[in-house]
Amino acid sequence: MTARLLDISRLVSRAGLGALTGIDRVELAYLREFIRRPEPLFGLCRLPRSYAVLNEEAVRRLEPYLSGDQPMPKAGLAKLLFPKFPAGRQAAIAQVFRASSGVASPRRLKQLIAKHVGARFCYFNVGHANLRVEVFQACGNNRKTVFIHDLIPLSSPEYSTPEVREKMLKAVKVVSEHADDLIYNSSATQSEAQGVFAQFGRVLPGVVSHLGGAATSANRPASEKPKFHIIGTIEPRKNHRLLLDIWEQFTIDHPAEEIPELHIIGRRGWLNQSVFTTLDVLPMMGKHVFEHGTLSDAETTAMLAESWGLLFPSKAEGFGLPLIEAAALGVPILCGQNAIYHEILGDYPLYLNVDNSYDWSKEILGRAGRTRESEADRQTRAASVKLPDWPSHFDRIFGSVTFPNRENDG
Fold this sequence. Notes:
Number of helices: 18
Structural class: alpha/beta
Largest sheet: 8 strands, mixed
Shape: globular
Number of domains: 2
CATH topology of the largest domain: Rossmann fold
Helix content: 40-55%
């Protein structure tokens, strides 16, 4: 069986930063799936000024630390060598060094891979990280597969910095020139990306496979008091401003007892100082609006399960895993008109114009004035939509002619 070399650079770089983001969770899902499968598995990790290769046993030992299921051991010497890195990343780097089969400079990467992985393997990069010419060249003629989650910095440049846009454009060019095939999370992403790849003169073969959500517990009734939730990094494209303006108007137009709660789950991001100022100074904070920062998957699911509605006024989205997880719990969803939502969820959500605060206000207050939903209500709603899951995702990937899984493939 042909070995698989999975790039885990993103997960290592994200260690200790709190709850995993959507792309982090995809890389973790692939890591766990490859551990489960019979093909030999190796890990590749980009470290400061070097690369490390890990065998399957080392990858297995590292997985619970990268997933957050176990606390990371002490960083040791890495704390001194990389003082500017967060403590979790320092500790993860230390673990990679301890567990690796070998470490080498970028110039010696090809020899490192050949020595510890062998001559024939499939390279997978599913984390939008470490998309570098040196890596693809080091893989030689072996099959190189890349997961494309979104190209938002290029398709919606107003939500990114020039540095981020330039970095993504460089990565897309590298993928176009050196990768063999692609995985897309949706037809919407595929359509958008193929237009970008066409600019470089090479549109790669690929397969669309929808992502699975986190495993959820049994449906629950809605909370006693009306509570609504928004989940995701607090950055401009997520459009927290719309909801904060709505809740500020609620405090002007309605008595306190009629105002539902808004719970914001997610870390503070970038280019959003006016929203951060609102969260820091407005009197409604801690009374009607609550900022929770990053929470574990279990904590987020527990809050979402009792929600009166997931609010998702995002102006640009790669996939939107929180919507999948809300639907699995039977929680109502109010969201924008992004094509990916229609592709995955069909008629389940209520679609609203993300620039029309009146419609959002009306729907939120209308739902807050209804009778509290029971567990049976949630079960009925959850049963109304067929949702993607991880087993189906991987069946699609490894059952596709684009990604054969036979002895003579490499």
